[in-house]
Amino acid sequence: MAWSAFMWSIYQKIPHPGKSNIRFLTMINHNPSDISCVYSTLMHANERHSRSGKTLVINFDQPLYWQLKCIVDAEPVTSALRNAIAVLGEFHTRMSFLGAMGFLMADSGLTELTHADSVVNNEKVFYSLLWQTNAVYELIFFFLGDSNISSTTGNRNLESHIKVWTDYLRPHFHPKSILLTKEFEYQSPAKPFNFFDSGVLEWNKSYLGEDIEDSLRFFAEGCDVLQGFQLLFDAHDGFSGVAEKTLELIHEEYGKKTTHAFPVMPSRFSSDTQEKAKVRLINIALSFNSCIEHTFFTPLTLAKTYGLSAGKGVSYVNYIDSCDYHTSAIIASALDTLTLPYRLKNSNVRWEELLNLFSQSDRKLSTLNVQFPFVMNEDESLLELLGKSQEDVWTTLCPSSKSNAVFSQSIVFRGLQDSKRRRSLCVSNDHKMGLRRDESIEEAVQRCYLNKFPQTLNSINVVDLPLKTSSPFPQFFVKSVSSTGYISNKERPGSEGVNSIPMGLSLQSGEACQSTLDILLQDIASFGLSNQLSHIRAKSFRTSFNLENDEWKEIMEKIDCYKGLYT
To answer: What values do phi and psi take at 311, rounded to 5?
Structure first.
């Protein structure tokens, strides 16, 4: 039967509705895939529905539906747009369901849970799903924001399920904040992204540079008062090259704005060789050289050295140095604490003013030190504790030797200003150390550090908010750490997790900076790379560094000369 005959047979007994009525609906003269168009549509629809007092339900096809979800989730809690309900179009809903039958979506986490690539003709998958019921429940309900799940996952072992702790979160990124390289693939032996020059080449050959410039300008124009830029990047692979080009772009377009770069490096590599270590050291040296040219920077890693090395110890934490799930949690906690004072509402701390402390004598390098958790008993006096030597409980998040010679530092303590513990925090047998009348704890800590570092420029911030460490945060704390993060004489029950911890952090510019540059140069020399790079051009690598030996020697001399600023 022909299509027209089929339609006639269906509708022949249905009364004719009459002639068609064609009219124009409201139109928005924009590209429908542009996020500004989606936002305008949402604002217009919400304005119309707000008059009727009804809930806005808006229907989009799949590509625009995702943009709509990102917009709604990015709105403040008080925004009326948060009440809008996004619905995926019926066609795409059915197609997504039908297309998913018999397959597991890549990178969804279900493959790891079921140990199967397809549910078709695979009976083991059902047993595996039953076995992993608790993990699936935990995964789904954390995505949905179930606040009760954390109390049941204190002793959950997540190391076998996720690679880094952010895998367990579901952040919603703005579409313009996600850019992809086109020539290279992550951890691909066929298209590795291992070389500094790979990042530079990707920037120049593809549209990556233009896309980053477009996104940078988009977000900068959306700022009411743009203070500056923070840049986190992998310093050991091709992203070091992308970071250099990004820093050059920021310097050209926003030269007067402050920048703070964080070159990040793993603590240990699971499969490492001498040749890979050499390439990694060259990438790190080139990225450090770029940072010295353009920005204030703070290296971040738990490794003892920049070459073949294991992770350093962290007091009261049993972490696995080869597990990104563990090390990334520690580094992310340090960054969260470092930036906390100027991210809080009604805070008087300005980020650009804070970094001015470190800009003396063209010094751009700093080291980050943490107490994770802050080593303090529940009934111990904070001021007496700070008056003692605590060098052995501070961990420097880069290869460096500790030094008391500090030019400037920004110190943050969080989770210590509980009103119930105010008296025990500041009671001291020494009247010079005790809390004075009408003096805040922050002022008392400031006075304590002024006595301890009289020649140092200090910025002290004490924040009430502790660091939340409930699931999915790694439960790698020793048993002597209580559920609130303080050091206790009693062991924590095995079924009880650590829900929060107090934390101390110090961003320092001092002789430790000279030490970290010394360690880098020593690692480079130990691999025979101080004067020439010719033997690094091995056939096992698909590309090599576009760098002459004279240029490399000049960079080594520059870094060696730069460390003299910290003596």
So the answer is: -80, 155
Q: Across the chain, which distance is largest between two alpha carbons, in Å?
A: 100
Beta bridge partners of 413: 462, 504
* Tally of domains in the chain: 1
Reduce the DSSP state of residue 229 to 3 states and report it: strand
Residue type, 392: D
The pLDDT value recorded for residue 416 is 77
- Is residue 78 in a domain? yes
Q: Dump pLDDT digits (tens) for 444-471.
A: 777 777 777 788 888 888 888 899 998 7
Residue reference for tokens 């693939």: 185
Q: What is the CA radius of gyration of the chain?
A: 28
Residue 349 exposed, middle or buried by CB count within 10 Å (0-12, 13-18, 19+): middle
Please tell me whether residue 478 adopts helix, strand or coil conformation. Answer: coil
Q: Residue 536: phi, psi to the nearest 5?
A: -80, -10
Torsion of CA 237, 395, 312, 552, to 10 degrees: 40
Q: C-alpha dihedral over 319, 320, 322, 327, to 10 degrees?
A: -20
Residue in the structure block whose two tokens are 């010079």: 432
Q: Is 249 inside a domain boundary?
A: no
Residue 345 per-residue DSSP state:
T
Where in 63-123 does DSSP place strands (E)?
85-88
**Do the Cβ atoms of 147 and 499 come closer than 8 Å?**
no
Token reading at 388: 């003692």
Report CA 533 to chain centroid distance, whole Å. 33
Percent of the chain residues topping a pLDDT of 70 = 71
Contact 368, 493 (CB under 8 A): no
User: For residue 428, is it within any domain?
Assistant: no
pLDDT at 515: 92
Residue 88 is given by DSSP the state: E
Q: Report how far residue 237's alpha carbon sits from residue 197's, in angstroms, rounded to the nearest whole number.
A: 9
Q: Give 298's pLDDT tier (boundaries 50, 70, 90).
A: very high
Kindly state the tokens that stand for 454: 């009289």
Strand intervals (E) in 475-545: 500-501, 503-510
Half-sphere exposure of 484 (CA within 13 A, CB side): 11
Taking each helix axis from N to C terminus, what angle separates 90-100 and 62-74, rounded to the nearest 10 degrees? 100
Q: What is the DSSP letter of 469?
A: -
Do the domain assignments include residue 95? yes
Domain that holds residue 46: 26-100
**Model pTM score:** 0.70
In angstroms, the CA 31 to CA 404 distance is 59
CA 369 – CA 10 distance, rounded (Å): 76
CA distance 373 to 487: 9
Question: Are the beta carbons of 456 and 360 closer than 8 angstroms?
Answer: no
pLDDT digits (tens, 9 = 90+) for 325-366: 888 889 999 999 999 888 887 778 888 888 888 877 788 999
